[in-house]
Amino acid sequence: MGFIADSAWAQGDYRFRVELDDYVVTCEGSLPLDPSCETVSISCEDPRELVFFGEDGCALSPEKQSFAGFWVNSTDISQVAVKVWHAEELLVDVVLAPKFAVERPNGEGCAPACTMASDEIVF
Q1: What domain count does the chain have?
Q2: According to the 3-state scheme, what is the secondary structure of 17-49?
Q3: Is the sign of the CA dihedral 33, 40, 103, 121 positive or negative?
Q4: Which stretches of the chain are assigned E, i.e. beta strand?
Q5: Domain extent at residue 101
Q6: Binning pLDDT at 50, 70 and 90, where does residue 1 land?
Q7: What's the pLDDT at 5?
Q8: Radius of gyration of the chain from Cα atoms?
Q9: How far apart are CA 34 and CA 74, in angstroms?
Q10: Whole-angstrom distance, CA of residue 17 vs CA of residue 28
Q11: Whole-angstrom Cα distance, residue 51 to residue 73?
Q12: Residue 88's Cα: distance from chain center in Å?
């Protein structure tokens, strides 16, 4: 799931809540990112390790940095509810129904066969 913001991501603290059917993952992160790109800015409470966030632009100036989106390491979900806060302001509150399809990145008949779904969250 990719995030598409209509303007630059503001500096400061972010909180994310990703609900995969009945499983809830909460994450927190801050911008600006570590300029050395060695330290991950976002941490999640996710005992099953299903959700992974991407950070974008650590070597760029702070106004070009963002949280690029997140990936879910499961195809056994029917609904994804996402909330995103900056400080205490709710920026995103959306429910998505993933549509999974088998993709073959190396061409038809070639391994691997990847079951994937994607969507964009615009705010």
Answers
A1: 1
A2: EEEECCEEEEEEEEECCCCCCCCCCCEEECCCC
A3: negative
A4: 2-4, 12-20, 23-31, 43-45, 51-56, 66-72, 80-86, 89-96, 101-103, 114-116, 120-122
A5: 2-122
A6: confident
A7: 87
A8: 15
A9: 29
A10: 9
A11: 6
A12: 19
pLDDT tens for residues 57-89?
999 999 999 999 999 999 999 999 999 999 999
Query: What are the angstrom distances between the C-alpha of 33 and each of 1, 7, 102?
Result: 20, 17, 34
The answer for residues whose C-beta is within 8 angstroms of residue 89's C-beta and 6 or more apart is: none
Amino acid identity, position 115: T
Which amino acid is present at 17?
Answer: R
Residue with tokens 């691997």: 112
What type of residue sits at position 107?
G
Please tell me the total number of residues recorded for the chain in this structure.
123
The Cα 74–Cα 88 span in angstroms is 30
